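Weekly modeling sync, notes
Attendees: AB, CL, MP (scribe)

Item 1: holo prediction request
CL wants a bound-state model with nicotinamide-adenine-dinucleotide before deciding which constructs to order. AB pointed out that an apo prediction alone won't tell us much about the pocket. Agreed to run with the ligand included and paste results into these notes for async review.

Input as submitted:
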Amino acid sequence: MTQKIALVTGAARGIGLATTKLFIEEGWQVAMVDRDGDELAIAVDGLDEAKPFVYDVSIPEQVTEMIAAVKGAFGRIDAVVNNAGVADFGPIEETDFARWRRVMETNLDGVFLVSQAAIPSLKETKGALLNIASISGLRASTLRVAYGTSKAAVIQLTKQQAAELGEYGIRANCVCPGPVRTKLAMAVHSQEIIDAYHDAIPLNRYGSEREIAEVIVFLCSERASYVTGQVVASDGGFDSTGVGLPALRT
Ligand SMILES: NC(=O)c1ccc[n+]([C@@H]2O[C@H](COP(=O)([O-])OP(=O)(O)OC[C@H]3O[C@@H](n4cnc5c(N)ncnc54)[C@H](O)[C@@H]3O)[C@@H](O)[C@H]2O)c1
């Protein structure tokens, strides 16, 4: 049987690294893409079924080169996980254009660019696109004018991709993680935010990288062969609940 190849962006740590490890456990090989070369070198060490690719997903020329390098190394691409992301929480009035662009260029442009460049390869394999958005793309919140808007756009981009690429056998799905204690989250989650999340999440806790990876890898696999255009929140129930729940708790 042909070994499948997953390309995972933002693979040097956090959710991307956990996803890489789970793909390998399930028999895939992984192209690990990240712009942080030092951290990527540490992450790939000991992962025999993975290769590192140091590229920035927000720069069009680098994305073109990256896809060619991955194709050159592995010969095929069966799944693309657009996971690389940055978080920047700030009030609307303090979000100038440079700050807005810094978020958009990775979180939205990066997903668009990597997907576009991978389409010819995914046509060959009838492969899968998997985009990582966030609960911040499903529910609005304070301080997330750029981050939340970028993630809501990723949700819609996924649906556009599913609608148009289905005829080639390419599936496109989106995972919206709830809070996970990664470097990205801990840089913007104060103790107050952590407590508030616990109150608002029915399962009453943060998720783990592995819990998010399980959903990602399932949606990329043959087990999800009739699933496309879907947005799945892996969030402990945060998205499904309304206001008032914490006050009703015992
Ligand atoms: N951790 C959470 O609570 C949470 C919640 C919802 C959504 N998410 C989303 O999950 C994804 C992964 O987040 P994480 O928490 O694992 O973050 P992380 O900061 O631990 O890892 C992100 C990785 O992406 C890389 N990266 C960032 N910009 C890049 C670029 N332009 N090109 C290439 N690599 C780049 C970073 O170097 C880093 O290794 C992100 O899209 C994030 O928005 C995270």
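Recorded for review: Residues 97-125 form the longest helix (29 residues).
Action items: CL to compare against the apo run; MP to circulate these notes.
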